[in-house]
Amino acid sequence: MSAKSDPGRSLALLWGSHTRPGRSGLTVRAIVDAAIELADAEGLEAATMRRVADKIGSGTMSLYTHVPGKAELNDLMVDTVLGELYNGVDDPSGRGGWREGLRYVAERNWDVGLRHLWLLDATGGRPTLGPNAVLKYEAELRVLDGIGLTDLQMDSVLTLVLTHVEGVARSHAGLVRAQRESGLDEQEWWRATAPVLERVMAGHDFPVAGRVGEASSQVYQASADPAHAFAFGLDVILDGVQRLMK
Amino acid sequence: MSAKSDPGRSLALLWGSHTRPGRSGLTVRAIVDAAIELADAEGLEAATMRRVADKIGSGTMSLYTHVPGKAELNDLMVDTVLGELYNGVDDPSGRGGWREGLRYVAERNWDVGLRHLWLLDATGGRPTLGPNAVLKYEAELRVLDGIGLTDLQMDSVLTLVLTHVEGVARSHAGLVRAQRESGLDEQEWWRATAPVLERVMAGHDFPVAGRVGEASSQVYQASADPAHAFAFGLDVILDGVQRLMK
DNA sequence: AGCCTGTACCGTACGACGTACGCCAACTGA
DNA sequence: TCAGTTGGCGTACGTCGTACGGTACAGGCT
């Protein structure tokens, strides 16, 4: 009997029109767009109900006429942005074999993650199942259709690739956020951290970590290199998938 | 000149003793333990300064005598929990080849993610570099040492495996959280969602997504199966890593 | 013993957040 | 014209992290 959240209400909103204006021209679309702009510019935590309302020149509580609450607004933001992924002409299937197709899928998801650093903060939990999310699932599955995988394997392979991309994109977003919040870029941060770390670790011995950590941080000039992790991991995963095909 | 956050201060705290009590017996250790208990039981958002203080019977602001702020408390929570991973006797290296070693690393990380569902919410951004994090890095790298990989490859392979585990663990944590917050388990959620989704998707056509989605949800009885994704992805990744060795 | 100074502790308050509630004004249909 | 409905929104509540300033205890000095 807990009326916490009604999946039906959210779904209807997600698949609704978003453009029917109220008395003062307020639309769902305008609310969602304003929220996305705020999140793009300053991170998801900047997309508060108050600031979204200010941005479109309405009272804070007017938003609730068009959107049940913050959670549903988040879902709308996510599904809207997923619409950027495959715009009809860029169908990921039919561009060579499954390998090129999967690579394209990974690259598109990586791109959208870079463009909207808040995206992965807004997902998680149950999937959203808006129109663009379903379209995405369909488009991505098609690159794996008819090449000898079972339906379950198709889903598993796609999940694996997307999990990888989400992981490295989240890592990238985390670094950008850390830089914004600390005011220190990667090199400044390391210059501030390294001497303290060395002093505090004196006495302990970490031979392998010391050697490998030094090698990596010299090459990356950073505490991590998500772009490299993206490419390296994708190659390894695609090689591994190859063996499923036999 | 922005004095936002001082990496040195955090590091010193992380590597400090945590057990030196103040006038009323308050210690860093007690604060961190209380916060972890709250997060384990009710999620990271339950570990507020007020509730932590209540739990240990002190005033809210007394915590700030021992801990600079919420962010540093999070770091301490993370590093403390990472201490559970490898307790000396369970050294991941020296248990067969690299493949068994990597599998063990993945499983230990998966386990700790299940035990502390808030862990991945508390990480992200720059790495924490507390004693247990460094110990973890060293222990995990050792399973890849001396088997013909370059230092950079060692780091990349480990990152790949950990990114995978983090991704599926995050997915698992998301489902558990969704269940707690909505009061609906996976089957109830799907029973509430499916008919609405079908009605709203009428007219559109998603042949592959429909077929595959149905197959998966029948087998998993859920919107996703992180445990299966963990195992499937790990096998594929290990196969892919194999080709690096050659 | 008396006192001084540093610091552990903590009560209050501020500005953010999401949103419940209720009022007003503008539409709609009769 | 007037009643009923509904979009818009001002106020207020309970939450959060934490700045600030006061209180009272501990330890070192005379």
Detailed description of the structure:
The structure is a homodimer of 246-residue chains. Chain A has helices spanning 7-14, 28-42, 49-56, 63-66, 70-82, 98-115, 119-122, 131-142, 151-182, 186-201, 207-220, 226-245. Chain A folds into 2 domains: 7-79, Homeodomain-like (Arc Repressor Mutant, subunit A), CATH 1.10.10.60; 98-245, Tetracycline Repressor, domain 2 (Orthogonal Bundle), CATH 1.10.357.10. The N and C termini of chain A lie far apart (51 Å). In chain A, helix 2 packs across helix 5 (70-82), helix 6 (98-115) runs parallel beside helix 9 and helix 9 (151-182) packs antiparallel against helix 12 (226-245). The mean pLDDT of chain A is 93. Chain A has 12 helices and no strands. Chain A has 246 residues and is mainly alpha-helical. At the A-B interface, helix 1, helix 8, helix 9, helix 10 and helix 11 of A face helix 1, helix 8, helix 9, helix 10 and helix 11 of B. Chain B binds a DNA duplex (30 and 30 nucleotides) through residues 22-24, 26, 45, 48-50, 53, 58-62, 64-66, 69-70. Chains A, B: GO terms for molecular function: DNA-binding transcription factor activity; transcription cis-regulatory region binding. Chains A, B: Residues 25-85 form the HTH tetR-type domain. Chains A, B: This is TetR family transcriptional regulator.
Biggest beta sheet summary of chain A: none
Unreliable spans of chain A? none
Secondary structure tally, helices of chain A:
12
* Structural domain tally of chain A: 2
Structural class of chain A: mainly alpha
Q: What is the CATH superfamily label of the largest domain in chain A?
A: Tetracycline Repressor, domain 2
**Overall geometric form of chain A:** flat
Total strands of chain A: the figure is: 0
DNA-binding region (chains A, B): 48-67
GO molecular function (chains A, B): DNA-binding transcription factor activity; transcription cis-regulatory region binding
Organism (chains A, B): Catellatospora coxensis
Pfam family, one (chains A, B): TetR_C_1
